Amino acid sequence: MTQSPLTLYLAAPRGFCAGVDRAIKIVEMAIEKWGPPVYVRHEIVHNKFVVDSLKDKGAIFVEELDECPNDRPVIFSAHGVPKAVPAEAAKREMIYVDATCPLVSKVHIEAERHHADGLQMVMIGHAGHPETIGTMGQLPDGEVLLVETPEDVAGLEVRDAHKLAFITQTTLSVDDTVDVISALRARFPDIVGPHKEDICYATTNRQAAVKAIASNIEALLVIGAPNSSNSQRLVEVGRANGCSYSQLVQRATDIDWRALDGISNVGISAGASAPEVLVNEVIDAFKARFDVTVELVETAQENIEFKVPRVLREPA
C-alpha cells in the first residue's frame, strides 16, 4: 500500500534544557555516590518517562520530606523548594542535594534582595505549581502576592503601592506575561522589575521555534507531560499563532491518528523536560504510517551547561 506524503517540521530548540539535564545528572550521580535508594522530593522534572527511568536506577519519589528516612540522601527537584524544606533537612541532619535550576535560584535571590530593600513582591505565576510554591516560600507569609492574569492585578491589595517589585515563574508564556506586566506597570508605576527577564532562555527559545512554524502547519504535537508548565505553554503558543490543532502528547501512543487523517504536514516540538528519545519515537510512528520528509526549523542554538553541586564531584 502506497503511503501518503507528509512533512514533519521539527522545531529547534526543543526538549531538554540545561537545568533539566543538570537535575537528572544530580539524581544519577547521587545514586552512584551513595547507592540506592536515593529519595527525591517531588518529581525531579515533570516527565513520566524520565521519572520511571530514574526509579529503575534506585530513586524513590516522594511529595514531602517527612516521607524520607533520616539516613538516606534526599534531592530537591529542579522546580525549587520553600526555605523551610532544606532547613528541616538540616535539622534532621540529612544529606540533601538541591537540584533547583540555577535560573529559578536567580529568581529566589532577586526576591530576597528586594525583600531586604523593604519591597513587597508580586509574583506572576500559576497557583499550585511547584516552582511558584518554592519561590513564594523564600520569603515570610504575605511578602509575595501571586497573580496569574491582568484581571488579578486589578484586585491586588498591597501594603504600599510605591514599594513593590515583581518576579515571574520561569516557564510562562512570554506573550501572556507581557500583558500582566503591562497591567502591573499601569496600576503601580513605581513597581521594580527584574534586571533581566525571569522567563528562562529555554522557555523563550522553544516558544519562538513554535511560533516560527505554527502558521504553516495543519497540526502541532508538543511532546511533554500534562503537569509540565512549559509544555502546556507551547501548546497555547501554537494555537495563538495560527495552528488550531495543537495538542500535548506524552509519547507516540497518545497520538490521535484519526484527527490527522488527510493532512500533509505536522509540526513537532517538545517541552524542556521531554527527552529526545520520545521525539524520535513520535517521528518513527509517523514514518510507519506516512511517506515522511523531516524538515528542521531552527530559530536559535543553545550551548548552556550548568555545573552539578560540588558535593557530587567530591569523592565519597
TrEMBL record:
GO molecular function, one term: 4-hydroxy-3-methylbut-2-enyl diphosphate reductase activity
Entry's cofactor comment: Binds 1 [4Fe-4S] cluster per subunit.
EC top class, as a word: oxidoreductase
Binding site for dimethylallyl diphosphate: H46, H79, H129, S228, S229, N230, S273
Active-site residue numbers: E131 (proton donor)
InterPro entries given in the database record: LytB/IspH
BP-aspect Gene Ontology terms: dimethylallyl diphosphate biosynthetic process; isopentenyl diphosphate biosynthetic process, methylerythritol 4-phosphate pathway; terpenoid biosynthetic process
Ranges in a coiled coil: none
Catalyses which reaction(s): dimethylallyl diphosphate + 2 oxidized [2Fe-2S]-[ferredoxin] + H2O = (2E)-4-hydroxy-3-methylbut-2-enyl diphosphate + 2 reduced [2Fe-2S]-[ferredoxin] + 2 H(+); isopentenyl diphosphate + 2 oxidized [2Fe-2S]-[ferredoxin] + H2O = (2E)-4-hydroxy-3-methylbut-2-enyl diphosphate + 2 reduced [2Fe-2S]-[ferredoxin] + 2 H(+)
Binding site for (2E)-4-hydroxy-3-methylbut-2-enyl diphosphate: H46, H79, H129, T170, S228, S229, N230, S273
Protein name from the UniProt record: 4-hydroxy-3-methylbut-2-enyl diphosphate reductase
Organism this protein belongs to: Celeribacter marinus
Underlying gene: ispH
